[in-house]
Please model this.
Amino acid sequence: MPLKNHVVIVTGGSAGIGFAVAKRLASDGYHILINYNSNKDGALACQSEINELDGACSILQFNVKDREQCESALEGFLAENPDLSIYGLVNNAGITRDTLAGLMSDDDFRDVVETNMFGSFYLMRWCAKKMLLKKRGAIVNMSSLSGQVGNGGQLNYAASKAGIIAMTKSLANEVGRRGIRVNAVAPGIIETKMTAEIPFLDQMKKNIPLKRIGKPEEVASVVSFLISNEASYMTGQTLSVNGGLYFS
Model:
């Protein structure tokens, strides 16, 4: 089956890292399915840029933390596109609700974990079932430096991203014998709208061995590698993209 018939789902593909990942994978030749929750304009902008590059792209709205909504939307997409087959998944959608643990509400903790970790689980489970039938596929889960080392004010976010690393290893163990690879990427400080709001960003750069923050395209290139056959003997791994801020 040609790559243009291989669908790679990119959740949260309407901005930031997800936007860059979608564009890069489209340039690799895959049919990209951009998921968005509320930022339809961003998803359409990404689709437009991919189309300008003669890439194949569709957009699909659903909230990743709503299992029924996820599965219904994806099943509907496949029913409308019988020539396409699910080949890859990039679990990129995520949120933050940063505050000190003593001030964190139950809702702040629950919303982050349900979106970041439950959402990734719902998509991994659904995609794995499709991939097992074909005995091929690649999943890349977006973790974070916070999930590797923890971070003050991000107890909920760090917990969700650490959980993603553990889920990556566990699923890799389950499905590897059927030709499906599952890996994770852990970005550090990346140039996005969210990081632009970080106080003392210039001071933080001084602690990074490469002395700068990363670009979304630099994360996208690692995701591209893990989805491709170039990484055919890699599974259960977490690749850090952090400029040397943490040596994993």
Remarks:
- The beta strands are 6-10, 31-36, 56-61, 85-91, 137-142, 180-187, 238-241.
- The chain has nine helices and seven strands.
- The first strand starts at residue 6 and ends at 10.
- The chain has one domain: 3-241.
